[in-house]
């Protein structure tokens, strides 16, 4: 029988803080002092370095961790491709991606209780190439079963940001355990091995895999030192290890193809670790919203939780943006998002409730659904929302109570897979027609000059 050891009595205990150096040991004295790789590590462990950036990356960008484990991760048999009849290879390949300007919206994606984490991943949209470490991929997942016994997984393609919409995910990682609940996110960096258990059955959500670089906190600029997602609210797992020398299967996603190998020991045998490269979680309810208190609707950038920057300063391969419950108090202002065309692509999802810029209900934007407005495709509030926003008495108003919408925003033109366009059978055929074609012209020049006279001086 395998034996599990935790650093604390609580198997889901955390360090707080992100973008920080952390250390953790499940056995006192397992972390060497002063030397990362001593000649004889404590307890007969092996020292192993996990590098998320080049050795020579600038100190402020360098991400790496030292692990002290029972056996090195190199101890396994040769990798072999997983036979395609064992999984739907088309759900991950992205070989059929189409870049289209049409606005798209999806009904809620179905649950699939017959599959586990690996079988439940479906690539919806993509831009870039994991071989060249450029771009991103967007998935939905829906599963109802834990991964097979003694099975673990990692992606060599990129960092996975997991947005859980429904259910419970218990993640066992090389660095410790993460209990993920709806309205929380987890980031599993490239190469870190983990398994997914679903103790309560069905789980569903979204993933943005960053092929290029790593997620980080956005700069705050004139906001100052506090606000948006605060460092102290990110949680990092504490070390634990298993003594298990049974046969384990390890699955790798390598350039969007699954490979597997076997080994005669658990991959979760890290007794201690320290460094700056690790998985972490964040409760979206802790986001500190910033907004306007005079006039005008600010850019959605003020709701950015994490960003995956490109090589152009201020431009992201992937921004993760949320729209939580918040107060709106602007005067003489159209409060919902204005109509716009953007040089960034916008993929939106809804975790719970109603999004204040779109009508819900059948045929609308609903929890577990999604939308995509690609580069320079015009979009904005639907006709119903526009009419309500222009006619309402602008008193201070709490919007989004019980709701949480989010956006994966990218500077890249995002292509949609055949699964996303046809196979999932969730695309709303009349999204454009029902949202914006009902808008009518209110242009009236019968009172020329009155517009300028009625301006409030802003």
From TrEMBL:
Residues 286-443 form the Homogentisate 1,2-dioxygenase C-terminal domain. Keywords: Dioxygenase, Iron, Metal-binding, Oxidoreductase, Phenylalanine catabolism, Tyrosine catabolism. InterPro entries: HgmA_C, HgmA_N, Homogentis_dOase, RmlC-like_jellyroll, RmlC_Cupin_sf. GO terms for molecular function: homogentisate 1,2-dioxygenase activity; metal ion binding. One of its GO terms (biological process) is L-tyrosine catabolic process. Transmembrane segments: none annotated. The keyword Zinc does not apply. Pathway: Amino-acid degradation; L-phenylalanine degradation; acetoacetate and fumarate from L-phenylalanine: step 4/6. It holds the Pfam family HgmA_N. Signal peptide: none annotated. Residues 14-284 form the Homogentisate 1,2-dioxygenase N-terminal domain. Fe cation binds at residues 340, 379. The active site is at residue 297. Its EC number is 1.13.11.5. GO terms for cellular component: cytoplasm. Homogentisate binds at residues 346, 355, 379. Its cofactor is Fe cation. It comes from the Eukaryota. Belongs to the homogentisate dioxygenase family. This is homogentisate 1,2-dioxygenase. It comes from Baudoinia panamericana (strain UAMH 10762).
């Amino acid at each position: 029988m395998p034996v599990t050891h935790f650093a604390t009595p609580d198997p889901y205990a955390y360090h707080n803080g992100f973008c920080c150096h952390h250390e953790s040991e499940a056995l006192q004295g397992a972390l060497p002092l002063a030397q990362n790789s001593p000649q004889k590590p404590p307890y007969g462990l092996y020292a192993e370095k996990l590098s998320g950036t080049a050795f020579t990356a600038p100190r402020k960008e360098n991400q790496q961790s030292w692990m002290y484990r029972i056996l090195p991760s190199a101890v396994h048999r040769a990798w072999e491709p997983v036979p395609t009849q064992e999984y739907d290879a088309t759900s991950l390949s992205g070989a059929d991606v189409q870049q289209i300007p049409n606005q798209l919206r999806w009904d809620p994606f179905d649950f699939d209780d017959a599959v586990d984490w690996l079988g439940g991943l479906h690539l919806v949209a993509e831009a870039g190439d994991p071989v060249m470490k450029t771009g991103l991929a967007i998935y939905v997942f829906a599963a109802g079963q834990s991964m097979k016994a003694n099975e673990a997984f990692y992606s060599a393609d990129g960092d996975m940001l997991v947005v859980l919409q429904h259910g419970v995910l218990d993640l066992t990682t090389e660095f410790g355990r993460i209990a993920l609940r709806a309205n929380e996110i987890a980031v599993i960096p490239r190469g870190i091995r983990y398994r997914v258990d679903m103790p309560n059955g069905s789980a569903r959500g979204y993933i943005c895999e960053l092929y290029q670089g790593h997620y980080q906190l956005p700069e705050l600029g004139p906001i100052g030192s506090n606000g948006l997602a605060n460092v102290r609210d990110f949680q990092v797992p504490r070390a634990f290890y298993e003594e298990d020398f049974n046969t384990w299967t390890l699955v790798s996603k390598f350039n969007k193809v699954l490979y597997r190998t076997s080994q005669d020991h658990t991959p979760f045998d890290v007794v201690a670790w320290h460094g700056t490269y690790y998985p972490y979680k964040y409760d979206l309810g802790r986001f500190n919203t910033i907004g306007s208190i005079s006039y005008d609707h600010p850019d959605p950038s003020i709701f950015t939780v994490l960003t995956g920057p490109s090589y152009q300063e201020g431009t992201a391969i992937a921004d993760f943006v949320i729209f939580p419950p918040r107060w709106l108090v602007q005067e003489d202002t159209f409060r919902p998002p204005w109509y716009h065309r953007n040089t960034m692509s916008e993929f939106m999802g809804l975790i719970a409730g109603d999004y204040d810029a779109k009508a819900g209900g059948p045929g609308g934007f609903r929890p577990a659904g999604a939308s995509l407005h690609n580069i320079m495709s015009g979009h904005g509030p639907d006709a119903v929302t526009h009419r309500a926003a222009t006619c309402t008495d602008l008193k201070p108003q709490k919007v989004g109570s019980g709701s949480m919408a989010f956006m994966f925003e990218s500077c890249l033109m995002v292509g949609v897979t055949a699964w996303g366009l046809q196979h999932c059978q969730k695309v709303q055929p009349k999204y454009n027609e029902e949202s914006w074609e009902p808008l009518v012209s209110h242009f009236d020049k019968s009172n020329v000059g009155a517009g300028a006279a009625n301006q409030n001086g802003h």
